[in-house]
Amino acid sequence: MNGATAEILWMENSRFQYQDAPNSPTARMNDFIPVLDSRLLPWGRTDTTQFISASKKWLRKASNGGGVWLLALLPHYDGKQMMIQSYNEEAYGLVGCCDIGDYRFARDHFGYSPSFSTLPRHISEEGSLFFVRVDRDLSQSGTVLSYAPS
After folding, report:
1. What distance in Å separates the CA atoms of residue 99 and residue 101, rounded to the nearest whole number?
2. What is the rounded distance in angstroms from the CA atom of residue 87 to the CA atom of residue 20?
3. Total domains, the chain
4. Measured distance between the N- and C-terminal CA atoms of the chain, rounded to whole angstroms
5. Is residue 93 part of a domain?
6. How many helices (H) and strands (E) does the chain have?
7. In whole angstroms, what is the distance from residue 49 CA to residue 97 CA?
8. What gap in Å lies between CA 137 and CA 22, rounded to an integer?
9. Does residue 62 sit within a domain?
10. What is residue 21's DSSP assignment?
11. What is the pLDDT of residues 54-66, one digit of tens each?
12. Which of 8, 36, 55, 72 could form a cystine bridge with 43, CB 3.0-4.6 A?
């Protein structure tokens, strides 16, 4: 964009193709997700009560419990309440949409929620699929809290 350069990670035949990666101090090898067939990975439960009717598929798990996964919200999903997130989250919409308050988070949308954000109620009539990355373990007590304003 506007003549800016970009670096691209590319996988071909299961080989890592990143020019000068071993010699580059900026190559974030710990964040690399190898090519895999996600159809072979099992779907599991989410770790929070707000997403009880959703499923997730781990793509990479960090040593601190955070990581990257696919999150599938089933049709007619309703988070019922607002929530407070005690973690940093990035998400990218792959399919469908989810209404987060007045904002429709849809395909090709990117979202970032910093730690201690209060997020509006989440509703998805048609269901949706997101690529999600978080910086800590969501199964720990108090990481995500339901919030009903008075």
Report:
1. 6
2. 33
3. 1
4. 45
5. yes
6. 0, 14
7. 20
8. 29
9. yes
10. G
11. 888 888 888 888 8
12. 55
Average per-residue pLDDT in the chain? 79
Place of tokens 């190559």: 27
Domain hosting 76: range is 35-147
In contact, 56 and 44? CB cutoff 8 Å: yes
Positive or negative: CA dihedral 90, 93, 99, 102: positive
Question: Please, what's the b/e burial string for 87-123 (b: 16 or more CB within 10 A of its CB; e: otherwise)?
Answer: bbbebebbebbbbbeeeebeeeeebebeeeeebeebb
Q: Is 88 inside any structural domain?
A: yes
Q: Name the nearest CA neighbour of 86 among 149, 148, 31, 134.
A: 134
67 torsion bin: left (phi>0), alpha (psi -120 to 50), beta (else): left
CATH number at residue 104: 2.60.120.10
Q: In this structure, are residues 83 and 118 in contact, taking their beta carbons and an 8 Å threshold?
A: yes
Distance CA 67, CA 56 (A): 12
Q: Is 54 exposed, middle or buried (0-12, 13-18, 19+ CB in 10 A)?
A: buried
Does the pLDDT at position 73 exceed 80?
A: yes
Residue that has been written with the tokens 């973690």 in this structure: 87
**43 in any annotated domain:** yes
For residue 86, give the DSSP letter: -
Write the CA distances from 57 to 33, 46, 114, integer angstroms: 14, 9, 22
- Tokens 């964040």 label which residue? 31
